[in-house]
Amino acid sequence: MSASNMTSTHPAAFLLMGIPGLEHLHIWISIPFCSAYTLALLGNCTLLFIIRGDAALHEPMYLFLAMSAAIDLVLSSTTLPKMLAIFWFRDRKINFYACLVQMFFNHSFSIMESAVLLAMAFDCYMAICKPLHYTMVLTGHLITRIVMAAVLRAVTLMTPLPFLLKRFHYCQGPVIDHCYCEHMAVVRLACGDTRFNNIYGIAVAMFIVVLDLLFVILSYIFILRAVLQLASQEARYKAFGACVSHIGAILAFYTPVVISSVMHCVARQAPSHVHILLANLYLFFPPMVNPIIYGVKTKQIRERVIGLFLRKDV
Questions:
Q1: What domain range is 83 assigned to?
Q2: Average of pLDDT values for 9-31?
Q3: Is residue 118 part of a domain?
């Protein structure tokens, strides 16, 4: 066998097929996708504009919220425009390296989102369980370190993936049965021993979801215990109401992940488009609903949004 055949080769481009089995419905499917992307852009840009422009909102809770909004913008913008191009124009081709970049951004920013939700749980815990120490603990320096740790963890865990995928020979063809480049979907096209990629991908996913979710649940166990110890019902309602928006964001982020994981385990024979639609729900649902959750449930954000539109009407 020649040396050229032993080296790693890859196609110049992949073909993203969208949602296999539902090609005849792509135009109709694009309507909720486009609406979700528009809402995500408007909602998260509004949150960033309000938080950046109001010094009174430069507090830990709102800084974490701003980071979450920025992450949601990146997550939705790296995938949904290409999905819409597939649905509207049948533009399925994506450059090999562009595919790896998209995959890196999708997975790394999802990990950052999970870290931000954990940081917000810690913020709620400090505000309710340790209110006298809140300002001493959650300083600007600590927030900066938390943000840097979230970014560093995501980049460190995801940087190996493009290099691992680049070394494979792709003899299964260039067709990806998905709307975007996802690690396991690309690995299925590779020849050779892909066990390390499979194990690494599953281990990272389990590590992030299980570890972060475990600490979030522990935080809320302590929060619930502290709330139930308050003397009056009004005080309990006010204390727990401060974390309602964060609970909503946690449910919006983790519920699609859990449902998709359960479906992969118990319904492996389900049509592929079911799994792909669930994966898409995980990508566009949180960016769409997070601004609504925080806008409705957070008084300070709600008042400033109303004020912003009232000033425009004057």
A1: 13-301
A2: 92
A3: yes
Domain with residue 234: its CATH number is 1.20.1070.10
Tokens of 29: 């499917």
Residues 194-203: tens digit of each pLDDT: 999 989 988 9
> How many angstroms from the chain centroid is the CA of residue 40?
12
Domain presence at residue 22: yes
Give a yes or no: residue 176 inside a domain.
yes
Work out the number of other CB atoms within 10 angstroms of the CB of residue 119: 23
Residue 95, helix vs strand vs coil: strand
**CA–CA separation, 179 and 166 (whole Å):** 20
Taking CB atoms within 8 Å and a gap of at least 24, the contacts of 141-145 are 143/60, 143/63, 143/64
Interatomic CA distance for residues 84 and 257, integer angstroms: 23
266-308 pLDDT per residue, tens: 766 778 888 888 888 888 899 999 998 887 777 788 888 777 7
Rounded CA gap, 153 and 160, in Å? 12
| Residue 14 and residue 49 in contact, taking contact as beta carbons nearer than 8 Å | no
Runs of H (alpha helix) within the chain: 3-6, 26-53, 60-77, 80-89, 96-129, 134-137, 140-158, 160-166, 183-187, 195-228, 233-241, 244-266, 272-297, 299-313
């603990």: which residue's tokens? 137
**pLDDT tens-place string over residues 213-252:** 999 999 999 998 988 888 788 878 877 777 888 888 898 8
Q: Are 191 and 171 in contact (CB under 8 A)?
A: yes
Q: Do 73 and 38 touch, CB atoms closer than 8 A?
A: no
SS3 state at 166:
helix
In contact, 154 and 76? CB cutoff 8 Å: no
**Domain assignment present for 309:** no
Residue 129 CA to residue 113 CA, distance in Å, equals 24
Domain count, the chain: 1
